[in-house]
């Protein structure tokens, strides 16, 4: 093993362990980490009762830290690497977790940032806006917004100006421009801002988001980062539900063998999230059904560990009305009582789903009714609030069409379900 290439995993400046470029990949906890009273496993399947781990559990955890689909392919070309280890070595410095990966021999350094402007960022985005080639699927293209969409990591200064993290410096915000080169998909950044603000307006906890006018992008504040009393940016640990379940990102859809809603509920419950977060899971499912977000798979759910302690279902993210775009999938990411075609979901399916999740149907139907009524009560105000920042033409048209599309879809489902 001494001859294998390795990457060191750090929590702040504390060495957690090392990842070795073997077949299969091997992860070894550092002896000092195992003696720390605050030491925790990086993932449930990589427990502290064994110092060495290898195989599927290791690959599932680390693979889920990487971008997906075409973006991963582009990174392979850019960095001339072809393996999971090679990609982690190239882009694993600031992952969605409390940890950072560094090449063997390197140690964490004080974070450094390069000042920039929104105009410079907008210019840099023009040739590199997301390029996602459609996949050949009968029911339409499925896109993974969690990992396949281009993102730019930023630090937002107190005065609102951006800075670029250098090396493995942590970021405070993520910038997501419009998806490009996917036929029929337009103004996706404003679509996401609309959906996230609509969710927050009806009381769902979401990541904070704004529309960055110069860059024409969604600007999202990271919930897994926080400033301490000294002004240093700290990383909070998080795990998406594919990582919790030991599934690679290629198995995130239930139809492909990924976690079902019942499995998601079990994962949340067994990892100690409070009961109110199980209710939030149900709210998330039906909000996505009403807005037509058919890409709401298990990787779009995470748990994180805030400073006050205990696991929590993370604020919701990657909300988009995908059904607005005719070329995308017509199939919901999860089965509701055995049915994943939204137009075929009946109240009997919801009642079956409730029982599968361990709830009384009346309880779940009350949540469904509240989400629908709240959405219809708030959607016009959200549309009005966003109208001043939407440019005439494409963006104004998007807001109007989203309002009509979601209102119509919600009312149709209400009528079908008699709520």
From TrEMBL:
Residue ranges of every copy of the HipA N-terminal subdomain domain listed in the record: 8-96
Family matches, as InterPro entries: HipA-like_C, HipA_N1, HipA_Ser/Thr_kinase
Annotated GO MF terms: protein serine/threonine kinase activity
One Pfam family per UniProt: Couple_hipA
Keywords, alphabetical: Kinase, Transferase
Chain ranges of the HipA-like C-terminal domain: 143-375
Annotated EC: 2.7.11.1
Any one Gene Ontology cellular component term annotated for this protein: cytosol
Signal peptide segment: none
Domain of life where this protein originates: Bacteria
Family: Belongs to the HipA Ser/Thr kinase family.
Protein known as: Serine/threonine-protein kinase HipA
Organism name: Novimethylophilus kurashikiensis
Lineage: Bacteria, Pseudomonadati, Pseudomonadota, Betaproteobacteria, Nitrosomonadales
Gene this chain is encoded by: hipA
